[in-house]
Amino acid sequence: MKKMMFLIFLGFSLLLANIFSCGGGGSASPPASIPAPVASLMTVSTPTNTGATTVTGAAGAVNPGATVLAANLTQGGVVKKLENLFIRKAFAQVVQATAVANNTGAFTLLLDANSGNTLGIRQRVGTEQSDVTHLTVP
Fold first, then answer.
1. Domain range for residue 86?
2. pTM (2 decimals)?
3. In CATH, what number is assigned to the domain containing residue 52?
4. What is the pLDDT of residues 30-83, one digit of tens each?
């Protein structure tokens, strides 16, 4: 009985580790069909006294009309799509924000962050989503 419980615990732990890993692009993963957001066209503000940080993407930062997904990876946010597990097409994120880019690919979004935190930004167009671009909060 103890061995069975251990094997169930081990299997569940491995499943959770796979779900919440922040990697991507392994040999089993197909390449993203849309480009990652362009880091050089995005700026991150210093946090306000309440911890709010603004991420601004200039024209061309992402595809026009794309949904921009952001997470504070330092504070536990994950920018990874969960699909066909327990929920259909959900995103597991802790500190997150979303915005829709305008017709030039520009966007603005707010999320909580501290100086030195790493933010992960990706874009979604339809059912396709890009790789993650990492930005550091000044």
1. 33-136
2. 0.67
3. 2.60.40.10
4. 567 899 999 999 999 999 988 889 999 999 999 999 999 999 998 875 554 444
